[in-house]
Amino acid sequence: MTTVEDRIAIEDQLYRYASSIDSGNPDALYDVLHPDLWAQYGNAEPAESADTVIGWIRDATKNCVWQHHLLSVYHVDVQGDTATALVYHTSYQKFEGDDDVCLLVGRYHDELVRHEGTWKISRLVFEIMWGERRADAAGYLESVGGRGPQVPDWP
């Protein structure tokens, strides 16, 4: 039964990674990322340490009006205190001063370790498959009353 519990805990961490970014709370990533994380996003230079990656995410998203990640965990393989996961990714971002919405499609190739009793992402490779900018040429957002309502901050 431990493997099933581990898989659920791992999936929760993988989804929490995206929801922490979407909620504009990059500090919550400290609960998800291993302090000695190694990560590469697309063809960018690899980054080492959770601090470095969280700083990079904070900087890259500082002008985001909103973000919306859709993740599907395709598989998790647990071997003792280590695991690997393949996560399919689609995300949308809207930036200040830009009427378009940006779309990214890719896959996360993650390695996780049990760290102080919790699963943490220790290695992350984001393989970018597709990207595009989308305009609301038909004015659909306006026709449904615009963006909203504002949701209160939850703990």
UniProtKB/TrEMBL annotation:
CDD domains: NTF2_like. InterPro entries: NTF2-like_dom_sf, SnoaL-like. It comes from the Bacteria. Residues 3-124 form the SnoaL-like domain. This is Nuclear transport factor 2 family protein. It comes from Nocardioides pocheonensis.
